[in-house]
Amino acid sequence: MNNMGTWNASITGNDTAQDLLDEYKAAFFYYDVPTALQKVDQYVRTMFDESEEDEWCAYMYSLAEFMWKKGILTDDIRNRVIDMVDSDYGMTEWITAGGSEEKKRRKVLEKFREMITSPQCAPKKIKLDLHMEDIFEDGEYVAFQLQTKGKTYVTNDITAKCLSDEEFLSYDGKYVVVQKIRSKISYVSSVVPEVCDRWAVFRMFDGIYDSTEGIDIRKLNEISFNSCPCFYTDSSMFYFKKRNYQIIGKGPVPAIVPDNPVTGLYFGISHASYDPDSDIITNLYPFETEIMPFAWSAEVADGVIREHTQRENGYGYGLNKKEYEKYREKMKKIIPERQAEFRDLLEKGAKVYAIRHKVLMGIAIMAPGRKTIIYMRSKDPSYEKELSCYMKQL
Q1: Cβ–Cβ under 8 Å, residues 221 and 206
Q2: CA–CA distance from 149 to each of 156, 171, 208, 320 (Å)?
Q3: Do residue 258 and residue 236 come from a single domain?
Q4: Could you give the CA distance from residue 172 to residue 293 in angstroms, rounded to a whole number?
Q5: What pLDDT, on the 0 to 100 scale, is given for residue 257?
């Protein structure tokens, strides 16, 4: 079946059905069944109607399947859909495709018909994986507790300095401070505008406290979070209540608030590769900058050289299609050359040093009889300057 937007013969194996599934959830979550059906039908008819058989089938069949699985399928919808199936409505493209494609679709519709004419379950509560509440007021300073008990420190960066279990556990129950600066909406239902997915955007401040007593919001020092000016998190009071939050003041938000924070903090996730408390502590822990002999790792070294080279050439941002292709070709040539040069110098006895602050910031290569070559992961020029000064003193 080559019809655009259809990738298999199943009831929901097409773009239209997939796009509408979230709208069904929103409508039947927010309204009673008759009202939800009316609202969905009004929305669908702004895009197509019964004259477009493929689209109308995608809509009606996916609606009937959704409602049956939730135990709310009405006799009217069931009867209308059965008539469509029995009359070969919407089968023109499948018949034209012929052979196995038509057989697959007819088999799917046969099973679909059997399903929606069989007894359905008791009505199920519709659940949305969305956060619709707007938590905190813009400008409010919020203190909440860290929860490290029973966890281990998590970092995805193999170059990171890890905290001991004892040190990580020592932060349990201590407070950190953030300020709500705005709300971000990532999804809004087209059928029910009240149904949306909100994210609360915060900025973070330095400091970890035993209690909230004596915290002076006028003396707080703002810090970046994962190298970003702010972070977003689920707009849900559930997580903050679990962490014994306290509102400790209110003040103006920054004059310039980023439209799109690029880093998130996810309180509902904690496993071997991500933990929110580890993420917070990584940003607040007073790591010291270290310069040390580089522990050889081809993967790490190649990654640093690649990052340095791409950043040196602007990552290809702001280029038109033709310019970007030139950039890509240049990277394909120069990155492997630099990586090969590094390995060659290493084999000839070059000394390599690394600078680390939380994670590896860059490496410097001192080859016998040659000047120092520096490759940096960090955009902060102070780390490159510090590494360069260190190498000159060797």
Answers
A1: yes
A2: 20, 9, 16, 51
A3: yes
A4: 34
A5: 80
In a domain, 168, yes or no: yes
Residue 131 counted as domain residue: no
DSSP readout, 38-95? HHHHHHHTTT--TTSHHHHHHHHHHHHHHHHHTT---HHHHHHHHHHHHTTTT-HHHH
Residue where a domain terminates, one of 260, 284, 308? 284
Same domain, yes or no: 72 and 154: no
Within-domain flag for 123: no
Sign of CA dihedral 65, 66, 71, 76: negative
Domain co-membership, 247 together with 308: no
Given this model, what pLDDT does residue 4 score?
Answer: 47
**Looking up tokens 């199943």, which residue turns up?**
10
Extract the tokens encoding 114.
């059997």
The count of structural domains within the chain is 3
Residues 146 and 275 grouped into a single domain = yes
276 and 299 both lie in a single domain: no
- Does residue 385 lie within any of the structural domains? yes
Host domain of residue 44: 15-116
Q: For 324-383, how does the pLDDT look when each residue is reduced to its tens digit (9 = 90+)?
A: 999 999 999 999 999 999 999 888 888 899 999 888 999 999 877 778 999 999 888 999
User: Do 339 and 236 have their domain in common?
Assistant: no
Q: Are residues 147 and 278 in the same domain?
A: yes
Tokens of 63: 């609606």
CA dist., res. 333 & res. 331, Å (int): 5
User: pLDDT tens digits, residue range 125-178?
Assistant: 999 999 999 999 999 999 999 999 999 999 888 888 889 999 999 999 999 999
- Please say which residue of 224, 250, 284 terminates a domain: 284
pLDDT category at 295 given cuts 50, 70, 90 is confident
What would the two tokens of residue 328 be?
A: 């890509």
Mean pLDDT within 186-211 = 96
111 burial level (CB within 10 Å; 0-12, 13-18, 19+): exposed
Q: How confident is the model at residue 209 (pLDDT cuts 50, 70, 90)?
A: very high
CA distance 98 to 352: 66
CA distances from 92 to 59, 85, 86 (A): 17, 12, 14
CA dihedral 37, 39, 45, 46 (to 10 degrees): -160
Quick check: 247 pLDDT over 80? yes
